[in-house]
Amino acid sequence: MPNNPVVPNTAADILAAAKALAPQLRERSVEIEKNRRMPADVVELIRGTGAFRMGFSKAWGGPELTSVEQTEVVEALAYGDASAGWVAMIGMDSGLYANFLDEVVAKEMFPSIDMTTAGLLFPTGKADRVPGGYRLSGRWQFGSGVTHADWVVSGAFITENGQPWPADGPQDSILLAVPQSDIEVIDTWNTTGLAGSGSCDYTITDVFVPDNRTMTFATVRNGEGPLAQPEVHMRNMPGVPLGVARAALDWVREQVVAKSQPGGGGWADNWRMQVALAECEADFNATRSAVYGAMRRQWEVLEAGGTMDDLTADERAALPLSRLHAFRTARSIVMRLYDLMQTGSIYRPSPLDRWLRDTMTMCQHVVAQDKILQTAGAYLLGSKPGFPLSLGITG
């Protein structure tokens, strides 16, 4: 699949294309939700913005967007539709994964920089050691975008002759990439929200995966710099809740103005309406600033040749904490707006109903769970983090 020269290839152009697509995504949100996966033509519309190529380096002919720029694009797409933003955020990991593969192998896997990946990284499968690679089997949940992905990357515990490997220590795990044709999608995605993400279960049965299509986030094989870091795939995730929260705020404000009288009177003069909207705006602005501030500081250190260890403890902890806070604050904002609009919120034509369900569902992801709070708190206190990868720690 050759690279499409028409696809935007700079940060400014990709962001502009994402913003231009958002209204169309909004118009199709009901259809996307009913479809329970991203319609094929919508996938192509997202691909056409350049979103899937964001992580590919300039050496590959990609745009090599910074983490901040990637998050802004995800935010713009999620402003149109939460599920579309979610699958864009997941699908663009192709260019990030390329850093952890040998260059020759990565270029064989990704002949186009607009190809997408999906899969669950937690090791729920089994990878049995065989000459030249592994035999991979298992069932994974939450394969967001797996119905349209080109490659599926899955986590698995390593075994040898069916027994945990190594035999004399903690069992190792690994990430393995297989073509989408090697998986079976199980249609399990009947959910409260993010319905259009198609985050179905999938199975892989005794598929051979060569050594060179395996990776761990502890080993960078191809590339260097800020995007060649173990937690890089988590950075742009806050773009989804931020985009949804901004969409909900703008929609409610439009509704309030529309129900007000020219020259004064109506909803716009309602004290409760004014205070509630201002509180939500304050929370949104503070949360968004925290996300981008933490990422900018991280990028500044890494771009100067530093490592994650060169961040202060507070700076490093701010990365997963700001992500968590973005998810939880977006849910809180949408819930308050839902209450503010009262019975106008409860009918399915209202986008607030969908945004409420989308934010409730996305907050069940591990990046929005108390495990992140424990991880950051433990790290700040010199104790043992429960999810060290969220801090960029792989040891």
UniProtKB/TrEMBL annotation:
InterPro entries: Acyl-CoA_dehydrogenase (IPR050741), Acyl-CoA_DH_C (IPR013107), Acyl-CoA_Oxase/DH_mid-dom_sf (IPR046373), AcylCo_DH-like_C (IPR036250), AcylCoA_DH/ox_N (IPR013786), AcylCoA_DH/ox_N_sf (IPR037069), AcylCoA_DH/oxidase_NM_dom_sf (IPR009100). It comes from the Bacteria. Pfam families: Acyl-CoA_dh_2, Acyl-CoA_dh_N. The keyword Cell cycle does not apply. Residues 20-99 form the Acyl-CoA dehydrogenase/oxidase N-terminal domain. Keywords: Oxidoreductase. Residues 241-369 form the Acyl-CoA dehydrogenase C-terminal domain. SUPFAM superfamilies: Acyl-CoA dehydrogenase C-terminal domain-like, Acyl-CoA dehydrogenase NM domain-like. One of its GO terms (cellular component) is cytoplasm. GO terms for molecular function: acyl-CoA dehydrogenase activity; flavin adenine dinucleotide binding. Gene3D superfamilies: Acyl-CoA dehydrogenase/oxidase, N-terminal domain, Butyryl-CoA Dehydrogenase, subunit A, domain 2, Butyryl-CoA Dehydrogenase, subunit A, domain 3. GO terms for biological process: fatty acid beta-oxidation using acyl-CoA dehydrogenase. Belongs to the HpaH/HsaA monooxygenase family. PANTHER family: MEDIUM-CHAIN SPECIFIC ACYL-COA DEHYDROGENASE, MITOCHONDRIAL-RELATED (PTHR48083), NRGC PROTEIN (PTHR48083:SF5). This is Alkylation response protein AidB-like acyl-CoA dehydrogenase. It comes from Kitasatospora gansuensis.
